[in-house]
Amino acid sequence: MTSQPIPADRAKISLCRTEEIAEGSVVKVEHGDLVLAVYNVDGEFFVTDDLCTHGPGSLSEGELYGHIIECNFHGGQFDIRDGAVAGPPCMDPVKTYPVSIEDGRIFIEL
Description:
The structure is a single chain. With 110 residues, the chain is mainly β. It has a single domain, classed as Rieske Iron-sulfur Protein (3-layer Sandwich), CATH 2.102.10. The protein is 0% helix and 45% strand. It is built from no helices and eleven strands.
């Protein structure tokens, strides 16, 4: 699991429980102004912004292929581990968040 301790001076937000994200799937989670996509790849959790950087597509409605999410709008692809563009027409990376797991809950650092 990708779970690094989050420094005390950073804001930590609880998103959901690990069992709410089935293995090999992605779920949209909203927290305040944040709209996020939470991924489970072989029991390892990742979080990105949900909005595609190319258009109005929702990444949580896309297809997940290993560590690659394909946007449902134009088919652009991103690596969910670091947000890097993995396929056109996207040109800008998607924002990712550091993830930690505590007591079965998924947290991100802001």
